[in-house]
Amino acid sequence: MKHLLTAAMPRDEAIGLLDLAEDMHQIQDRELKKLPALRGRTVVNLFFEDSTRTRSSFEIAGKWLSADVINVSGKGSSASKGESLRDTGLTIAAMGVDGVVVRSGASGAPALLADWIGKPVINAGDGTHEHPTQALLDAFALRRRIHGRAARGKGLDGVRIAIVGDIAHSRVARSNALLLPALGAEVTLVGPAAFLPVPAADGTRLGLRAETSLDAVIDERPDALMLLRVQLERQAGKVAPSVGEYITGWSLTDERLARLGDAAIMHPGPMNRGLELSSRAADGDASTVLAQVTAGVSVRMAVLYSLLASDHAADHRPANDGGLR
């Protein structure tokens, strides 16, 4: 793997990354959270959009692997003066960095950057296109919830997941729609008609089953419900339901929560409490919201290690028993 630009990957490759993330996950229980695997490597986090979870977890992941991590924001870079993405990328590459993590409001920007700079590039979210590490951490958190300590080597075969909300504008939904079925999950897209992608000729969307009734899907008792943030900033000129209509039809209210059973409740964040889901849903025992955040560090450590570690770094991976190899 030279870059991570998309969540579209073979099952074996995805499970390999999830298993590597299991190895990395062990160091979160240590007093000293540090591995020497990327010592001497330099990673630039190039973020043209605001972020809390993704940017922070990539920074933590790099530092826990002993990489030197540099954060560059669009507002504080020459991009704010009109410099092109290409020139920004070439400038950073010329400084001798080893890899770039990029978030951009422009779909396809990470792929272009990968072509231009000749360094490993990780897509940390591009427009309404994809967010592959989010899909990987979602799969990691759900796999752990279902399989516990026996998760290693397993996919999500037969697990029924409903992704609910603003599918059309969500890069998280698109990446999960690519990754989760590859791991064996049965995925249903749920939302207002205006929030569902344009259907294919056979009536499906993104090759998956699509429904407009959240209540009907809840009655089917899915294993997990993934709620998406309503992205008002990406809906200029679009026909969308009002806040009241959205809550009535597609919010995970306390009443719907009571009918959901013990299904995992997922959300990539940031949450709009009271809109996408109630506080009881967000904070209850079935919620994986914080587990997803924790998983983000482990998964991003695995991705950085896979792309940037030299051959000798295998000596510094955590062993399955929590020690160092």
Automatic annotation (TrEMBL):
The protein's annotated pathway: Pyrimidine metabolism; UMP biosynthesis via de novo pathway; (S)-dihydroorotate from bicarbonate: step 2/3
Keywords, comma-separated and alphabetical: Pyrimidine biosynthesis, Transferase
GO cellular component: cytosol
Domain Aspartate/ornithine carbamoyltransferase Asp/Orn-binding residue range list: 157-306
Enzyme nomenclature, EC number: 2.1.3.2
Similarity field: Belongs to the aspartate/ornithine carbamoyltransferase superfamily. ATCase family.
PANTHER family: ASPARTATE CARBAMOYLTRANSFERASE, ORNITHINE CARBAMOYLTRANSFERASE, MITOCHONDRIAL
HAMAP family: Asp_carb_tr
Annotated protein name in UniProt: Aspartate carbamoyltransferase
Species: Agrococcus jenensis
